[in-house]
Design a protein that fits this description.
The protein has 47 helices and 48 strands. It is α/β, with parallel strands linked by helices and 1528 residues long. The strands form twelve sheets. A six-stranded mixed sheet has the order 3-2-1-4-7-8, with helices on both faces. Strands 16-15-14-17-18-19 form a six-stranded mixed sheet, sandwiched between helices. Helix 1 runs antiparallel to helix 2, helix 8 runs parallel beside helix 13 and helix 21 runs parallel beside helix 27.
């Protein structure tokens, strides 16, 4: 908003082309402004010999009309009387009648465009004519009256300013100060030229004779003399005094432009030597105007805000005094000026007197406002030397009044200030609220410029608000931020009240506890709080179930009693575990609620804390340690959970507790939230990644010496079990062995001992500790031959790993045997616990392969990190010496990635309030170049415009800017503070283009914004500080290198290659085809129960080389492909297709009966000789459920390829040469993944949908939800015999729609869903709905629970429940119902986890994103297993099978080959014996577990399956088994 007057020099009309250039310049200026009655108004004046009004500010208020008027402005020729023109603007334009809004504080701007120097009648220096002088006594006239000189010319009459100058008689006073008599007043009532200067100084030089004999009076410069001689300067000054910004543009000399322009004139002069260049100045002038107008608006706010009124009112209303409220004052602009410090004034009266004398600074519009430097300076205000009383427990407040955005960064200075415990309160008088929030301690930021009141009223309101905070010393605190999502937890505070604390400091502890608890969502169903206080003995003033009301709890904390005594922290930890963490006293650990303990202590414990801490953590409690003053740092680390940087806090004094309060609260809530939402999903993802580790031999070498407590040894075993569950265990896949050592090493079991995960897990559980000394070197030497034997048992090389776990220093040397192991090709990882640290690098040989924890119970927290290192296929991490932690993070991620043009590309954008591209995706393809470019980066600083940065980055995900279409596009946003702009829409727009976004936040980052950026909780990482980024490096690198996690490789399928071997294929090309087949095999997981392969070669005749049941291991399949011999002949493709059908039969290893996907991959280079029958033979295969992939090379007939693939174009692949096969396999592998998705394991299921229809859901979103539900329904085989569907809706109340036995088929279900209408309610009562939906799982409502059919509930909701949910969910789970939840938007995830386990919880940012997770939901429902506790009774049923083969035994054939009736009746018989109805003594149907046993003819155990819950899959697994030897 501004009033802009354009003043144009008409003398340019003397050159018509110049005036047209001027018109174009004005057009550009007007076009760049936001024209409107309530925005920018523009007026135009033109001048030459006299000024002329073209149009006023209120004439044209639309841009188009204004531009049209500009085109009709005539050129007014003449001179250049600039001074008169400026005076004309003041009297005719900048007045209300002309449309000026100066009275409303709208900035006033005059832009003067001049073509040359002014021709106003003035004398310039050196041009003053001779002045006749008369000598005489003092007091006589020194100058003649004005009359003609001897030539007849008037001597003084040419001197004019704003009219005729009267006669100026010369006189001399006693002091010589007044050299001219008084000058008649001008139009403004002031003399034109009072020529007085400092005493004794003459403003005219001494009189000297000229050639005519008259004295010469040359001009001397001086402050008043200039005014006399320059009407331009005088008029410009008059405008500026009325707060008009004057900008000078044109060809006038620099001196006159300086007279015209506002100060500092270098900012407001646009000089040009040629009007040809004038148009180039438009953008620069617009920029100058806009920035300055904004400054003027903000300065106007501060001008209108009565600072003295504010200060007076504040001091008057507070009890100011040396022992009460102390007040200090400082002002800032480019620098800081301290007016008075906290201890300078002792009374209210004196304070008010000093405020009255205060002279407020009025910074110039372009003067820097360095608030960052002022905040840094403010650190000195609160020292004891300057009157601060923090050490006495008094709160410290800094009130910041700001009218403009700071010229320097404020974040770090504000953070440092707040870290001292000072509460910063920001009051905006025009400064951006984003910056005030950055400066302030939440929630103390106020925007007075937005208050719809007078500034006087706003001042009063501000004072009253601040006064209430000062006197109350606490604010009404709404639960917000991270703690608004960490809504369910049991949090226990363990508080030191020993003698060293003292009463005054204990009051600060009370205040700290009060503030932290106040920020939590405390209630019996949400966050429960307990408090243990301790000295020499512990007590519990507050148990987890003591208070049902938050207010009552807070009031109690205020009076929490203080006792003196010793410091037995260990006893307090034990007391917490035994007395607080029990269901009897309110703990909900048994229902999965997170348990958290915060230890606050000021000294070293007088008893042992180590074992007590371990036992508390083993009980499932996350422990935070907050040390004050003399607390022992090492002891804090021993108490706290791992990693330490997330769980240990320290402050130097109790007065600094306030500084750590928000950090601790934020960290604790972040960890509660992230633990609940991301741990399971990321573990699942890691398992999928590690499934790609197809073959490996892994040995654990575990220390069993006497220094290890038996419970610690059990922790090691648990670690190994959790580790092995991540991998595909089997003789042809990952094998694991365990050796243990103390004085001597012992092999517990070799890698060949166990062939499946279940038996391996049992083997680990049976390991017994034998104790002894620690001889690690001897143990490492012992391992070498074990790896040699392992390689020999496989017959080929595979990756070899050894993981050593030890807790102490070895009694012998470790380096030599460790080096020998590594030289053998073994990758050695060293995990140190407790005292083990010195030798870890010698053992591993690589810092990246070292892990350390303080205690064995923390092993579980590093399990994923160890696995990630093993599974990551890429290069080493080199130690970095650079100081920038964010740079280190980027460099380390790059180091771990497969950087290449066709693999992983990186680009970097840096952002603040401005954006900068550091390098594009296609700029560097080597790690070295990228790392050098990152080293060269310089921090931008300033603000945080994350939303703008995301939009800026989007342009670089285009092909023109380096994007590779074949590669997944990913954006990683790293930020350490809250965004100052909107991020949600910008991020969604980017994600909608297919870019996957990761959001990493540290320190002050807003977690809600991180979720809005990523759109997915799994891609959000919130950390306490930059040190924590180290933990993310391998995780992020692995995800970046895994762009298609949902479809990485084929895990289970029957695949036959049907390969053209005709004479048109050269031998070198046939070898390329072999290589191609090997690449396909390598993208699968080969095994008897996984993916099987067969090969058929064809030309004139087809020939099976090996069938699906021939090879069990990938290595054998690859070897078989390598040994293929090319036949010779014609291309009889149709005949080969018909021939291949028999090889998908059970006898040949086909598993179609078990619903394993059947694939035939036809590879050919030419036209089929028997093409006429191609359609029929292809259809025959399709009718048997075989999917055909057609791969054509060179001369292959594309039409025939499509016929074979059933006209499914996504199964047709063509390359024009054999070499292209090298890359084609990647595309085919993705297609295979889609076609080999496992068929739903739940062939029968009862599926009930529970849909939220509350008022928070828009009608359009409700329709999206209905369509999504319909899509889910269509993903299953709906019928009364297979999958049954029921549905209900809820909001405040529960609405039944249809039961499981109401609608028998898919179409009727879909029709009903589409016809539903939303009955919006005011509340979201999920708990009530869960209780009510139990009706759907009764037999009379169609549930087949008694028949052991899977029971499933899908809940879709967008909000927080208004009632309790845990008990209702538990009742459903007791019925055996598996609950799946889809949460949309800002749902309370921690609350939803009381209903369903994290692996069954899906979240999306909005309803529009539901479709992106549909397949994931279907897969999870299909593959999910029911809760373990379905019943309170179970029966184990062992089945022995007599399957004597007689003489019909075929090695490698199905177990039941030839037993046709047994194959048919076995599933029925097993179902019959496994169905046990509800008994009088059971809660529901009896749960049955099955095991099968088969003996060989010699009586040896051939098959011995463990007991597992009965389902149809149990029998199918038995039917799929093959027999290598005859059975009994």
């Amino acid at each position: 908003m501004a009033d802009v007057v354009l003043l144009v020099d008409g003398s340019l009309c003397n050159d018509s082309s110049s005036f047209e250039l001027m018109r174009g310049f004005l057009r550009n200026i007007i076009t760049g402004l936001d024209i409107g009655a309530d925005r920018v108004r523009v007026a135009l004046a033109q001048y030459s010999d006299k000024p002329h009004q073209e149009f006023l500010l209120n004439k044209y208020l639309q841009k188009s009309v204004l531009l049209d008027a500009l085109e009709t402005v005539p050129c007014r020729t003449g001179g250049t009387k600039t001074g008169a023109a400026l005076d004309f603007l003041q009297t005719n334009y900048f007045i209300p009648k002309a449309g000026s809004r100066a009275a409303q504080r709208v900035p006033q701007v005059a832009v003067v465009i001049t073509g040359g120097n002014s021709t106003d009648e003035i004398w310039t220096c050196g041009a003053l004519p001779s002045v006749p002088c008369r000598s005489g006594p003092v007091g006589r006239s020194l100058l003649y009256p004005v009359d003609p000189d001897p030539t007849g010319h008037s001597l003084l009459s040419p001197i004019r300013t704003r009219g005729a100058l009267p006669s100026v008689p010369c006189s001399s006073g006693p002091t010589g100060r007044s050299l001219l008599s008084s000058v008649a007043p001008g139009p403004r009532g002031a003399p034109f030229c009072p020529l007085s200067g400092p005493a004794g100084h003459s403003l005219l030089s001494p009189v000297a004779p000229d050639p005519l004999g008259l004295p010469s009076v040359p001009c001397r410069s001086g402050p008043h003399w200039a005014s006399l001689l320059s009407p331009v300067l005088e008029a410009a000054q008059a405008l500026r005094q009325r707060n008009v910004l004057v900008v000078g543009v044109g060809q006038a000399n620099n001196t006159q432009l300086q007279e015209i322009a506002s100060r500092p004139f270098e900012h407001f002069i646009q000089k040009t030597d040629s009007y040809q260049d004038l148009t180039k100045l438009a953008d620069e002038l617009l920029k100058t105007m806009c920035v300055t107008i904004e400054d003027m608006q903000q300065a106007a706010s501060l001008t209108d805000f009565n600072v003295k009124l504010f200060l007076n009112r504040m001091v008057n209303q507070l009890n100011v005094g040396a022992d009460a409220f102390r007040v200090g004052l400082a002002q800032y602009g480019a620098t800081v000026k301290t007016e008075f410090l906290l201890n300078a004034i002792q009374t209210k009266k004196q304070t008010l007197a000093d405020i009255k004398k205060l002279k407020l600074r009025r910074p110039q519009p372009n003067e820097p406002r360095n608030l960052g430097a002022a905040l840094q300076h403010a650190l000195t205000f609160f020292t004891a030397a300057n009157g601060g009383r923090a050490e006495q427990g008094l709160l410290q407040y800094l009130v910041v009044l700001s009218a403009m955005e700071s010229s320097d960064p404020v974040f770090n200075a504000a953070r440092d200030l707040k870290a001292t415990g000072t509460t910063v309160m920001g009051v905006s008088l025009g400064a951006p609220m984003t910056q005030m929030k950055e400066v302030s301690t939440a929630p103390y930021f106020y925007n007075l410029s937005a208050v719809n009141k007078s500034m006087a009223a706003a001042t009063v309101e501000a004072v009253d608000t601040l006064k209430a905070v000062f006197e109350q010393q606490e604010a009404d605190w709404n639960v917000s931020g991270d703690c608004s999502r960490a809504t369910v937890a049991d949090i226990m505070f363990i508080v030191d009240e020993s003698q060293s604390v003292g009463k005054a400091n204990f009051q600060l502890v009370r205040t700290f506890l009060h503030s932290v608890v106040r920020g939590l969502e405390v209630s019996p169903t949400r966050v429960r709080v307990g408090i243990v206080t301790y000295n020499h003995e512990p007590t519990a003033p507050v148990y987890l179930d003591s208070f049902n009301n938050k207010t009552e709890l807070l009031n109690f904390i205020k009076i929490l009693h203080y006792h003196e005594g010793g410091t037995n922290t260990g006893e307090a930890l034990n007391f917490t575990r035994k007395s607080m963490c029990t269901a009897a006293r309110g703990s909900r650990a048994g229902t999965g609620v997170q348990q958290v303990a915060v230890v606050i202590t000021d000294g070293k414990s007088q008893d042992d804390v180590v074992q007590a801490s371990v036992e508390l953590r083993r009980a499932g409690v996350t422990v935070y340690a907050l040390g004050v003053k003399d607390a022992d740092e090492a002891e804090l680390e021993k108490m706290a959970s791992h990693p330490k940087h997330k769980h240990v806090f320290s402050v130097d004094s109790f007065t600094q507790l306030k500084a750590v309060e928000q950090v601790l609260q934020k960290t604790m809530c972040q960890n509660i939230y992230s633990s609940a939402t991301t741990t399971m999903s990321r573990t699942t993802g890691l398992k999928e990644d590690c499934a790609q580790t197809d073959e490996a031999d892994i040995f654990f070498l575990i220390d069993q010496s006497s220094s290890i407590h038996p419970l610690d040894f059990e922790d090691m075993k648990k670690f190994i079990i959790a580790f092995l569950r991540t991998f595909l265990i089997g003789p042809d896949h990952v094998r694991i062995g365990v050796a243990k050592y103390s004085t001597n090493p012992v092999l517990e079991f070799n890698v060949t001992a166990y062939s499946d995960a279940a038996s391996l897990e049992d083997g680990v559980k049976k390991i017994v500790q034998r104790f002894g000394d620690t001889f690690t070197g001897k143990a490492l030497e012992f391992m070498s031959p074990l790896f040699t034997e392992a390689e020999a048992s496989r017959g080929h090389k595979v990756p070899k790993y050894m993981i050593a776990i030890t807790d102490g220093e070895s009694h012998d040397k470790v380096k030599v045997p460790a080096d020998a192991l590594r030289s053998q090709g073994v990758m050695v990882y060293a995990i140190g616990v407790k005292e083990a640290n010195k030798e870890l690098l010698e053992i591993s040989g690589d810092p990246k392969k070292i892990f350390f924890v303080d205690n064995f119970d923390a092993l579980k927290t590093i399990k994923d990190n160890v696995i990630r290192e093993i599974c990551s296929p890429y290069g080493k991490l080199h130690p970095l010496l650079h100081r920038g932690k964010m740079k280190d993070f980027m460099k380390n991620v790059i180091e771990r990635s497969a950087v290449a043009k066709d693999a992983v590309r990186f680009g970097v954008v840096q952002f603040s309030t401005v954006m900068k591209l550091e390098f594009r995706l296609d700029q560097y393809f080597s790690k070295k170049e990228m790392l050098l470019a990152i080293d060269a980066m310089r921090q931008l600083r300033k603000g945080t415009r994350t939303g703008q940065a995301i939009t800026f980055a989007q342009q670089y995900f285009t092909i023109a800017n380096g994007r590779c279409p074949e590669l997944q596009q990913r954006l990683v946003v790293i930020t350490d503070r809250e965004a100052q702009d909107e991020v949600k829409g910008n991020a969604k727009h980017l994600r909608d283009t297919g870019v996957v976004v990761y959001a990493i936040g540290v320190q002050g980052a807003n977690t809600t914004q991180l979720e809005e950026i990523s759109g997915n909780l799994d891609r959000v990482y919130a950390e306490r500080d930059f040190d924590a980024l180290k933990d993310l490096e391998s995780q992020l690198a692995l995800e970046i290198c895994d762009p298609k996690r949902e479809c990485q490789r084929t895990n289970k399928a029957d695949i036959i290659f049907l390969v053209d071997g005709s004479s048109s294929i050269w031998s070198v090309h046939f070898q390329t085809m072999q290589k191609f087949m090997s690449s396909i095999v390598n993208k699968t997981t080969v095994g008897t129960d996984l993916t099987r392969f067969g090969v058929i070669l064809f030309c004139n005749e087809p020939n099976s080389i090996f069938s699906l049941n021939r090879f069990k291991a990938k290595r054998d399949v690859l070897d078989g492909i390598t040994k293929l011999n090319q036949p010779d002949g014609e291309t009889y493709t149709s005949k080969a297709l018909s021939y291949s059908l028999q090889f998908f039969s059970p006898e040949q290893g086909g598993r179609a009966a078990q619903r394993v996907p059947q694939l035939l991959m036809v590879i050919t280079d030419g036209d089929a000789t028997d093409s006429k029958s191609l359609e029929a033979s292809s259809k025959a295969l399709a009718q048997r459920g075989v999917s055909i992939f057609s791969i054509g090379i060179k001369d292959a007939n594309r039409t025939q390829l499509e016929i074979m693939a059933g006209h499914k174009k996504d199964r047709v692949f063509y390359v024009d040469n054999f070499d292209a096969l090298d890359t084609l396999y990647k595309n085919i592998s993705l297609g295979m993944c889609e076609d080999t998705k496992p068929v739903c394991e739940k062939e029968k299921a009862d599926l009930v949908f529970l849909l939220d229809q509350s008022g928070s859901i828009k009608k359009s979103d409700y329709e999206i939800m209905k369509n999504f539900t319909t899509g889910l329904v269509r993903s299953f085989n709906i019928s009364s015999d297979t999958v049954r569907v029921g549905l209900a809706q809820f909001s405040t109340n529960f609405d039944h729609e249809f039961y499981l036995n109401d609608l028998p088929d898919e179409e009727k279900v879909v029709e009903h869903i589409q016809a539903m209408s939303q009955q919006s309610g005011r509340q979201t009562n999920i708990g009530r709905a869960l209780y009510a939906v139990k009706e759907h799982f009764k037999p009379e409502r169609g549930s087949r629970r008694d028949q052991l059919v899977s029971q499933n509930l899908v809940l879709i909701t967008d909000g927080e429940s208004h009632d309790a949910v845990a008990d209702a969910a538990q009742q459903l789970k007791k019925l055996g119902v598996e609950i799946f939840i889809l949460g949309i938007g800002r749902v309370k995830v921690v609350e939803l986890l009381q209903i369903a386990e994290s692996e069954r919880l899906f979240t999306v940012a909005d309803f529009g994103s539901l479709e992106t997770i549909r397949q994931k939901v279907v897969d999870k429902i299909c593959n999910s297993k029911p809760p373990k506790e379905q019943s309170d009774c179970s029966i184990d049923i062992a089945v022995g099978l007599d399957i004597s083969n007689g003489g019909a035994f075929v090695p490698g054939g199905p177990l039941l080959a030839g037993q046709t009736k047994l194959r048919s009746f076995l599933p029925v018989l097993v179902h019959y014996v496994s169905t046990v109805p509800k008994l009088c003594c059971t809660f529901g149907a009896v749960r049955t577990n099955l095991a099968f046993r088969v003996l060989s003819q010699s009586g040896a155990m051939l098959i011995d399956r463990n007991f597992e819950p009965y389902n149809e899959g149990t029998v199918n697994k038995l039917l799929a088994l093959v027999a290598d030897t005859p059975t009994l």
